[in-house]
């Protein structure tokens, strides 16, 4: 019997929306409105396949994803902005390297470039997509601060074939006439309403989920591989303990999702170079609650519990619920130990990486104190070298992507800025 997919076409867009909402809901709502306008233009054009329309609309929703890293959010609320290359380039590279949208990602890099400035070498479909996103982006930005549609339409005609391709403008006018796009922008947008027939494979859904994890972990050089390391350790220990693959699969998802809520924690707290104040620690600990809100009942309950209980301790001293050991499953105990080991082995703004010996010493001490599961710690210690070899194997491509992405970012910034 085929196991039901944990993430699927029905829940992945909601997970993406709720996750990014905790950075800044303005960008998520803006992205959905842009996707709505682009969908209208694509429908009128009737040129692309349903799959291509789907990918372009998802790209449109995520077109500002680079701003989650580049801290441009406040500057982007202006109708006209000159500071556009940072988030455009980073967004292009991020989507090209870390999402199923590789084929279309370049359109994001040029979504603020006037049609008269687009490179001649740009593929026709990329140029069109960039222009559709650009037009939809500027229309929505304008309407967030003004209801004067007549002035907007006059402006669009003034910049026909200078800023916006006349053909794309005509597509918008026809779509507006047929679907009343501008009045519908005032409605609360749900991506499933914009694109109700979204169809993704299980692998594509997992790739989008990983994309969101990287959007969180890539915010700081100290957390780049934390989730992957925690997941890798968890799966390795589970297999060493002889757990069936059905349980290993749940552990993989639970570990992958465990820090999703950290996207809502300010970077200055995540990167604070020292011991956090009680107030800052309280904020940090809310990441578990944020994870719960993001998952929103859309993920299997036992997987959600694994994600939410990684800071609980067997003696009831953990958070957020101070659960005792008899309420914590083996899967939850494995991820709790793995999360600590990942944090100890990794660098942080306030510490360097701990040695393997010191890491084992710390978790063994916590096991003796009744905080961590003794059997999990024992199995991890007995297989530590093998586990870490797997961790290094899994982390290497992530680190290569992270540093390669930043190298390409600086190169492209120098070329276009």
UniProtKB/TrEMBL annotation:
UniProt xrefs under PROSITE patterns: HD_GYP (PS51832)
CDD domains: HDc
Pfam families associated with the record: HD (PF01966), HD_5 (PF13487)
Domain HD-GYP span(s) in chain numbering: 201-396
Coiled-coil intervals: none
Alphabetized PANTHER family for the sequence: CYCLIC DI-GMP PHOSPHODIESTERASE PA4108, CYCLIC DI-GMP PHOSPHODIESTERASE PA4108-RELATED
Annotated protein name in UniProt: HD domain-containing protein
Organism whose genome encodes this protein: Wansuia hejianensis
